[in-house]
Design goal:
This protein has about 300 residues and is an alpha/beta fold. The chain has a single domain, classed as 3-Layer(aba) Sandwich (Rossmann fold), CATH 3.40.50. Helices cover about 35% and strands about 25% of the residues. It is built from nine helices and eleven strands. Strands 6-5-4-7-8-11-10 form a seven-stranded mixed sheet, sandwiched between helices. The chain has a four-stranded antiparallel sheet with strand order 1-2-3-9, with helices on one face. Helix 2 packs across helix 3. The protein is globular. The N terminus is likely disordered. The structure holds zinc ion (ZN).
């Protein structure tokens, strides 16, 4: 089935360049890719070389991040987010005690607020979503610069730290964006902090099994379509950083936020079992945290 690129691309989007359509891995250019899933939303591939799982979307995802998205996904876990943000800042400060910080995909602004409280200054928050920037403004105050894309007028301002908390997977052309961040906005010797979902082989085998027994449209959710473009694992992210000659300073796989399952109907309980409980059991450390340093 030929790839059809997204038809509409909004101006206020995190898309920094068109999504490539070549039949190679979006991160390492290897032609050794295997298609795992096809749906009306697009196609999912796994790279046999760097092991990343990636999604070629047929839909424009930029309009998905409205205020309801943040209310539904993050309001209930804001306290947990705050505690994690403080812990992540402490991890960063082991390598970069203070300085300027850009948070790419700043969401509700919890991380930026924690960074400011810990002494980081001249912070910039970037987010595709105006709803996110509004929430961030409430959390950090008026002095922090907030923008929708890197093309806005921050010129070539360079930062001591760039963070991507749960945003890397959602960027349509992550490699181009990462290169922009590294080349234009990270100081030599600067620190890149990434937190992103971690997908192991057991989980992929589980979804492969489900795809034999469930209709294709149900499988979309197991690959997190259409929101996530990249599903990393520790090897894929290590290979990516090595490509840019970064030094990995810290790497850990941990459990994501625990969300309460309040299912009343049998269908909702089954959904909770298939989508949350079993994945937690077979892929318990479902979140990767990596701190890497750019070459001096
Ligand atoms: Zn690859």
């Amino acid at each position: 089935m030929p790839y059809v690129p997204p038809v509409t691309i909004q101006s206020n989007t995190m898309i920094e360049a068109p999504v490539p359509i070549a039949n190679v891995c979006v991160l390492c250019d290897s032609a050794r890719i295997k298609r795992l899933h096809v749906s009306t939303k697009g196609e999912v591939f796994r790279c046999r070389n760097c092991t990343v799982v990636f999604f070629r979307s047929r839909v424009d995802t930029s309009a998905l991040y409205d205020s309801a998205y943040f209310t539904n996904n993050y309001a209930a876990i804001q306290e947990a987010q705050r505690a994690k943000a403080e812990r992540y800042i402490a991890t960063i400060q082991q390598f970069q005690a203070t300085g300027s910080l850009m948070d790419y995909g700043c969401g509700s602004g919890v991380f930026l607020a924690a960074a400011e409280a810990a002494g980081f200054t001249n912070s910039v928050g970037v987010d595709i979503s105006d709803a996110a920037l509004e929430l961030t403004r409430r959390n950090v105050g008026p002095h922090v610069r907030l923008i929708n894309t890197l093309s806005e007028d921050i010129g070539e301002q360079k930062f001591d730290v760039i963070s991507l908390i749960d945003s890397a997977a959602h960027v349509p052309n992550f490699r181009v964006t990462l290169e922009l961040l590294i080349e234009r906005h990270l100081k030599p010797g600067g620190v890149l902090f990434v937190r992103t979902p971690n997908i192991n082989r057991w989980y992929l085998t589980y979804v492969k099994f489900l795809s034999c027994v469930l209709p294709s449209e149900y499988i979309d959710e197991f690959y997190f379509l259409p929101k996530r473009y990249l599903l990393f694992n520790s090897r894929a992210i290590r290979d990516l950083f090595q490509k840019y000659r970064f030094t990995i300073l810290h790497s850990a796989a941990e459990s994501d936020y625990q969300r309460t399952i309040s299912a009343t109907s049998l269908k909702a309980q089954l959904r909770g079992l298939l989508m949350r409980r079993i994945p937690r059991w077979i892929n318990p450390r479902n979140s990767l945290v990596v701190v890497a340093q750019s070459p001096q």
